[in-house]
């Protein structure tokens, strides 16, 4: 039981009666979340020796040499700081936890900190999706974790998740606490997963932690290089043969009809974005190609005169009904993108 004149467990330096005692109206979980966040931030601010700082600088130079052309200096600083504290030099993190545990703490906070002694590098695949969380299965291990769903998360069926997390069983077993941010990777054809597994197998390390200590920057480089690829590279490496065939059919038709290069590139980008975001179900590639062409003509995105939908369906050798069904979805998708673009311009 905390007395009113005792030091406040939030470590503000004030007496309890002049600090958190006045926050009885605030939900307890919110206060605990704030306290845990302060503890994590405090780890970054702890005093380190000149030798530790020299080691950190060597890591920063190494990461900058690998990632400097792919991401900005602030992002590199954040990534290497997280790596140094929670992976390369876990002794610094554990020392900070030990000091914190020697202070007055809420019992729930104390139980969480006991779990936090062993940070986790999460490289896993979304295995199951529930209303409030997703289950993520490790790729280089057998464990699975539950990650609370946030509004900003763009999770897809083939999504991989990468980042440093901490165990947090407050709500349910195998929950995790995200330290700063996670990377979400779309890997429909398994190329990224295969690349990381091959790197892990060739490293010869007996456990995944040693592998991540050695190759964390390499994994970030692979991830960021994927993000900087051109549209053609994305199509070649991430799209299924059926999706690639859709783009080939559409390209050939637009070329035959002497469509302007700008319009062809625009439609190709629309198809790529549509596949990435919506993952439409279809069996015949010509149906999607016909639907995109039909919408493009209808919206005046290409110079062809208005054509009856029956004629367009015949041109692509598909049924009018199937083409129209997909065309309605594609038109809605294009208008949604247009509205988002217009809203950003206004802002």
**Computed structural class:** alpha+beta
- Mean pLDDT over the full residue set: 85
| Radius of gyration using CA atoms only | 26 Å
- Please estimate the helix content: 55-70%
Instruction: Please report the number of helical segments.
Output: 13
**Low-pLDDT segments:** none
Give a description of the structure.
It is a single chain. The protein is an alpha+beta fold. It has 3 domains: 42-113, no CATH class; 118-225, OB fold (Dihydrolipoamide Acetyltransferase, E2P) (Beta Barrel), CATH 2.40.50; 233-344, Orthogonal Bundle (Cyclin A, domain 1). The protein has 13 helices and 6 strands. Strands 1, 2, 3, 4, 5 and 6 form a 6-stranded antiparallel beta sheet that branches. Strand 2 and strand 3 form a beta hairpin. Helix 9 (241-256) packs antiparallel against helix 10.
